[in-house]
Amino acid sequence: APAAMALAFDEYGRPFIILREQEKKSRLQGLDAQKANIAAGKSVARILRTSLGPKGMDKMLQSPDGDVTITNDGATILELMDVDNQIAKLMVELSRSQDYDIGDGTTGVVVLAGSLLEQAEKLLERGIHPIRIAEGYEMASRIAVDHLESISTKYEFSATDIEPLVQTCMTTLSSKIVSRCKRSLAEIAVKAVLAVADLERKDVNLDLIKVEGKVGGKLEDTELVQGIIVDKDMSHPQMPKRIEDAHIAILTCPFEPPKPKTKHKVDIDTVEKFQTLRGQEQKYFDDMVQKCKDVGATLVICQWGFDDEANHLLMQRELPAVRWVGGVELELIAIATGGRIVPRFQELTTEKLGKAGLVREKSFGTTKDRMLYIEKCANSKAVTIFIRGGNKMMIEETKRSIHDALCVARNLIINNSIVYGGGSAEISCSIAVDAAADRHPGVEQYAIRAFADALDAIPLALAENSGLPPIDTLTVVKSQHVKENNSRCGIDCNDVGTNDMKEQNVFETLIGKQQQILLATQVVKMILKIDDVITPSEY
Ligand code: ADP
């Protein structure tokens, strides 16, 4: 087995294991399997470690076809990293689960899992059975999750007092590349969430928030649109740029006369025949326009195009139209305006029209770029966050950051329990778990204690990333927890002058933090229980 692994030392003299996957060796068993897997998991966590916290570094990733992404979002980094090791893939999956359920804490969860693996490795070396470690971790995670509940507090806010929510979103955004605009972006996120939230039922449907981006302008120009925006313009430049109280026909059928199919032959051998055919076509289209007008439509939005002649006629008959609108957009427009998508022209009726208080075309700067704003919709719950920025990379990263902020606001509306951040919650849990270890006489106590040590990885990484001496800083903060019985002390990453995270307004949702601990424990237990790794030898 050792042939598949080699011990090497990194630039700081720390040992690490190189896995030679290409070598013929195709099977790892027992302790070797666990060690190899732990090494793989740890190496993924090590990459994310430096991205944690407000002073975390960003990563630049290049895809095989040359697209460059700059981000410090854990889930995204892992998503784009091309890992072919199965255990590393589990870590990617871990981050994705946290992203899916909670939307925030995607870096932290991986760092925690890496640290749990590191501690487990030490226990394995001391001869403790992996199953005992898994059991101890399980107990410890439950203690930690309960402890989090006990130190949590309620975060008060209301529809009229949104400032607390804005503050929370600002915390999330402060560690992102877009932190320069954290105030305005946080406000946009909170307003968007409140627009789609049902505060009574504590329900938020984030699907109703569309996040759209267009290269150009500044990040500061990012805005919240009370409705839908579509990257299209009116089909004819002389059509009105502004339609109030619009009644919208939403068509997925072609809005033009049926074209003779190629397999049918139409003999046009005289000018008269041509004119008759043309007249018929025109009449047909004219009837279609009339039908739209009869049911009361003042705007037509089509999935398909129509030719210049039809376009001209639409303009003449004063029926503004938008063509080539994608299926997803059409659906959103239908939901927002309370209209129905009409797949066959004959089915168009007044009831199926969508309603919007205002539809306007907006042009940007000196460019030809125009967007269609559909606002004051019948279903006022659909909103759009329209992101502007200098380049595609910036817009994509802003989208990810906004996503995190939206999730944080949503989580608080669903459950307004919070714990303080900056590593304070982890330190408090670490102390509680450590104390609990003393009450367990069995071998598990070692695992429980190791779990407590693993939790320290979060404050340690936050301190290290902020340029503070990690161990010294942690020791001071930990003793503060014990002496002052204050579970809010964390790492003063931004050198504010206090490490009381309540004063710094740095906190995370209780469910988010609990989920991090549960998910990290789960994946580590899974890795520990694998004792046989078989890979095809021609790998
Ligand atoms: P994640 O993807 O896990 O959310 P982040 O890079 O956003 O990772 O870092 C989150 C961590 O940074 C949390 O532990 C959070 O409490 C901490 N944090 C965020 N802002 C601050 C701050 N101003 N001071 C100290 N810690 C902070």
From TrEMBL:
<keyword id="KW-0963">Cytoplasm</keyword>
<dbReference type="GO" id="GO:0051082">
    <property type="term" value="F:unfolded protein binding"/>
</dbReference>
<protein>
    <recommendedName>
        <fullName>T-complex protein 1 subunit epsilon</fullName>
    </recommendedName>
</protein>
<dbReference type="GO" id="GO:0140662">
    <property type="term" value="F:ATP-dependent protein folding chaperone"/>
</dbReference>
<keyword id="KW-0067">ATP-binding</keyword>
<comment type="similarity">
    <text>Belongs to the TCP-1 chaperonin family.</text>
</comment>
<dbReference type="InterPro" id="IPR053374">
    <property type="entry name" value="TCP-1_chaperonin"/>
</dbReference>
<dbReference type="InterPro" id="IPR002423">
    <property type="entry name" value="Cpn60/GroEL/TCP-1"/>
</dbReference>
<dbReference type="InterPro" id="IPR054827">
    <property type="entry name" value="thermosome_alpha"/>
</dbReference>
<keyword id="KW-0143">Chaperone</keyword>
<dbReference type="GO" id="GO:0016887">
    <property type="term" value="F:ATP hydrolysis activity"/>
</dbReference>
<dbReference type="InterPro" id="IPR017998">
    <property type="entry name" value="Chaperone_TCP-1"/>
</dbReference>
<dbReference type="InterPro" id="IPR027410">
    <property type="entry name" value="TCP-1-like_intermed_sf"/>
</dbReference>
<comment type="function">
    <text>Molecular chaperone; assists the folding of proteins upon ATP hydrolysis. Known to play a role, in vitro, in the folding of actin and tubulin.</text>
</comment>
<dbReference type="InterPro" id="IPR027413">
    <property type="entry name" value="GROEL-like_equatorial_sf"/>
</dbReference>
<keyword id="KW-0547">Nucleotide-binding</keyword>
<dbReference type="InterPro" id="IPR012718">
    <property type="entry name" value="Chap_CCT_epsi"/>
</dbReference>
<dbReference type="GO" id="GO:0005524">
    <property type="term" value="F:ATP binding"/>
</dbReference>
<dbReference type="InterPro" id="IPR027409">
    <property type="entry name" value="GroEL-like_apical_dom_sf"/>
</dbReference>
<dbReference type="Pfam" id="PF00118">
    <property type="entry name" value="Cpn60_TCP1"/>
</dbReference>
<dbReference type="InterPro" id="IPR002194">
    <property type="entry name" value="Chaperonin_TCP-1_CS"/>
</dbReference>
<comment type="subunit">
    <text>Heterooligomeric complex of about 850 to 900 kDa that forms two stacked rings, 12 to 16 nm in diameter.</text>
</comment>
<dbReference type="GO" id="GO:0005832">
    <property type="term" value="C:chaperonin-containing T-complex"/>
</dbReference>
